Amino acid sequence: MDSDHRTPVVLCWHMHQPVYQDQHTGEFLFPWVYLHCIKDYADMAAHLEAHPGARAVVNFAPVLLEQIEEYLVQIERWRHSGAPIGDPVLAALVAESLPEPGSPGFLELMEKCLRANENRIIKRFAPYKRLSELARFYRSRPDIQRYIAPRFLADLLVWYHLGWMGETVRRNHPVIQALQEKSHQFTMEDRKALLDVIAELMAGLGPRYRHLSQTGQAELAMSPWAHPIVPLLLDFGSAREAIPDIRMPEHTGYPGGRERAEWHLQQGKKVFQRFFGEQPAGCWASEGALSQQTLALLSDHGFQWSASGDSVGHNSFRLAKDQGAIKKEPHIHQPFVFTEQPLTVFFRDDGLSDLIGFNYADWHAEDAVGDLVHHMEVIASNNTHGEQRVISVILDGENAWEYYPENGYYFLDELYRVLENHGSLRLTTYQKLLSEPVCDPVKLPHLVAGSWIYGTFSTWIGDPDKNRAWDLLCEAKQHYDRVMDNGSLTAEQKEKASYQLGLCEGSDWFWWFGDYNPAAVVRDFEHLYRRHLTNLYDCIGYPPPASLFQPLSQGGGEPARGGAMRPGHEAGGGE
Q1: Burial of 126 (0-12, 13-18, 19+ CB in 10 A)
Q2: Which of 7, 77, 283, 344 could staple 380 via S-S, CB 3.0–4.6 A?
Q3: Which residues touch 23 (CB under 8 Å, ≥6 apart)?
Q4: What are the beta bridge partners of residue 56?
Q5: Is the pLDDT score of 566 beyond 70?
Q6: How large a percentage of the chain has pLDDT more than 70?
Q7: How far apart are CA 249 and CA 53, in angstroms?
Q8: Sequence-distant (≥ 6) Cβ neighbours of residue 178 within 8 angstroms
Q9: Domain map of the chain by residue range?
Q10: Where are the beta strands (DSSP E) in 404-546?
Q11: Are 175 and 139 in contact (CB under 8 A)?
Q12: pLDDT exceeds 70 at position 1
């Protein structure tokens, strides 16, 4: 739309879950992949479908897509042959027999069915609220647990999944409406019908997002395969560009990091092509983590754009000004290129993105959208020099909505309704912007390495617990390299080991380590990280070192939104 002089607005939703599956046993240790599928990925597609004039970028981590495929395969095997479903919570939903009341298995399953937002999910539904109150009573009275009726757990399992169901599904799907109306004493037929809905929603995600891409409503982008922090794989020293005195791991760098970074990009593109039938033009490098080396690598692999937080932009602007390359710092609301790399970089407006992530959940939807759009209008009106303005709102597309009423239904509906026909703002995508003649990036000499969180890598390196985790990974990688070179593994074993190593290189393990995170979540992710590393040692036939079994991180903090989201800046609201 070359003649459209409205200010472009890009909404970029990032969809990501780390690998919760134990590759040796096939078991999913946590249910977050399929729960976010039925709640958030389905809802986010539906909101775009309901507003044909809306546009958005939707970025997927390839390991999330692979796990969706794996769930669907396991559900089909269960349907046709009775093979076990590898997720214990989903398997329990349709299990012919459930653990005996009062048994450890019963209590563990009961606790898992309470892992939902207390105010927005559990208390919203009176039957779920009553079941949760009973569960807490039973927890405090072990002497009466053996007298619990088996139906209690069956009903709790159904309400757990009904509570996590997407709002657009809840309002339109007859099976979900019927189950909610029934409210209790769910039969096996009811539970199987609920599983059918879950499978239906998961199977529909690929086709729905493909269609949104084909109609031009959504640009589909990707992150590197297992969501690693690419600049740190390439060079630990990149962390010093934003924090010169940062404490580093004992190992001076990640062995063979460039080869591994390329592997994550190549593997990610294969998965993306299989799932969506196309190749992505853009790459939201995991956590918006960029460096000059990373830009070159992304460009070499054919990506046309990437993005990061505005703190990375401001750090880079200050450096350019200090070096005399520019006279005054540019504003962040425009495209950039660094040195001679053809890859275009956009910067997240942290203030706007963080308002959605942390502030608006408790506002009336119309007030929240009115406030957000007003900020955008001010940005657009301040363009007195006729520069190319691009307002980038980039945030987690799954974790924010459980803090909103009805999973963000009213906010997202209002947001798309207002912006799809706005007089001075137009929703678009980065790929569409790059095809427009007016898109003329600002050229700067050097991108200062950092991520969308604070403009640094301090969320993944520098803390003693995070550094120890890197040292464990570096040690495992050294053993991996020796085994891969000595000819003791077959080609199939090497491929399996490379895949397992990739899981260990993901960003999520380092994200969660540290005293400021909740102890229970730190415990979960430490367990996952150790299991992935232990499985890697099994893959290469090398005994894991004793250090792998020593406590790594305890946690104990109470960050906003449980730590699953972070603000872009160290002070103020955030995503």
Answers
A1: exposed
A2: 7
A3: 496, 499, 500, 503, 532, 535
A4: 218
A5: no
A6: 96
A7: 49
A8: none
A9: 7-19+40-59+207-223+281-457, 67-205
A10: 425-427, 442-444
A11: no
A12: no
337 CB neighbour count, 10 Å cutoff: 18
Q: How far apart are CA 574 and CA 570, in angstroms?
A: 9
Positive or negative, the Cα torsion across 417, 419, 421, 423?
Answer: positive
Six-digit token pair at 280? 């992505």
Place of tokens 């995600």: 205
Phi and psi torsions of 348, nearest 5°:
-65, 130
CB 62 within 8 A of CB 274: no
Task: Please compute the mean of the pLDDT values over residues 15-25 and round it to a whole number.
Answer: 95
Residue with tokens 């007030």: 367
Give the angle 324-326-329 at the CA atoms, nearest 5°: 120
- Shortest CA distance to 226 belongs to which of 41, 29, 64? 64
Contact 38, 31 (CB under 8 A): no
How many angstroms separate the CA atoms of 527 and 505, rounded?
Answer: 15
Alpha helices, H only, 82-125: 88-93, 104-112
What's the average model confidence in pLDDT over 459-486? 96
The model's pLDDT over 72-91, given as tens digits with 9 standing for 90+, comes to 999 999 999 999 999 999 99
Q: Reply yes or no on whether the pLDDT at 558 is more than 80.
A: no
Q: Give Cβ neighbours of residue 338 (< 8 Å, ≥ 6 apart).
A: 292, 295, 316, 345, 443, 444, 445, 446, 447
How many Cβ atoms sit within 10 Å of the Cβ of residue 434?
15
CATH class of 7-19+40-59+207-223+281-457: alpha beta
Q: What are phi and psi of 553, to 5 degrees?
A: -155, 145
Cα–Cα distance, 567 to 563 (Å, whole number): 10
CA atoms within 13 A on the CB side of 522: 19
pLDDT at residue 568, as a whole number = 67
Asked if 161 contacts 194 with a C-beta cutoff of 8 angstroms, the reply is: yes
Indicate the angle between helix axes 491-504 and 257-276, nearest 10 degrees.
90
Report pLDDT digits (tens) over 305-318.
999 999 999 999 99
pLDDT score for 388 = 76
pLDDT tens readout for residues 24-66: 999 999 999 999 999 999 999 999 999 999 999 999 999 999 9
**Sign of the CA dihedral with 303 first, then 473, 486, and 536 last:** negative
Does residue 574 have a pLDDT over 60?
Answer: no
Name residue 556's amino acid: G
User: How far is Cα 362 from Cα 368, in angstroms, rounded to an integer?
Assistant: 9
The closest alpha carbon to 396, from 118, 63, 58, belongs to 58
Q: Residue 346: which residues within 8 A CB-CB, separation 6 or more? A: 10, 305, 306, 307, 335, 336, 390, 392, 430
Q: What is the mean pLDDT of residues 211-234?
A: 98
Is residue 137 within 8 Å of 170, Cβ to Cβ?
A: no
- Backbone region of residue 292 per phi and psi (left: phi > 0; alpha: psi in -120 to 50; beta: other values): alpha
Task: Give the per-residue SS3 of 190-237.
Answer: HHHHHHHHHHHHHHHHHHHHHHHHHCCCEEEEECCCCCCCHHHHHCHH
